């Protein structure tokens, strides 16, 4: 399963998220950079299965990006295991060894 991370310490707003999403999933300039276009990509455009980590997502950022989080949660439910979303307040610790 492919794993993609979005660090919200470096994503101040939705336009920045759309840009980073397009970069990480190698989307063309045709990507509409709005919630409808994002839904279309997540549910039928990007390669699945995929695990997506939202890093450094504190309470304030969860409120600011609420519509985005809801979209990914709904896609996770609709795609029945093909997409996994992890909301993390801090980056995951790296394994030692």
From TrEMBL:
Belongs to the barstar family. It comes from the Bacteria. This is Barstar (barnase inhibitor) domain-containing protein. Gene3D superfamilies: Barstar-like (3.30.370.10). Residues 1-82 form the Barstar (barnase inhibitor) domain. InterPro entries: Barstar, Barstar-like_sf.
């Amino acid at each position: 399963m492919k794993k993609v991370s979005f660090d919200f310490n470096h994503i101040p707003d939705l336009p920045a998220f759309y840009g980073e999403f397009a970069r990480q999933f190698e989307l063309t300039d045709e990507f509409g950079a709005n919630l409808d276009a994002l839904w279309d990509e997540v549910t039928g455009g990007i390669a699945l299965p995929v695990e997506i980590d939202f890093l450094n997502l504190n309470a304030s950022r969860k409120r600011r990006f609420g519509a985005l989080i809801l979209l990914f949660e709904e896609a996770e439910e609709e795609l029945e295991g093909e997409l996994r979303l992890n909301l993390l307040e801090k980056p995951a610790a790296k394994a030692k060894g």
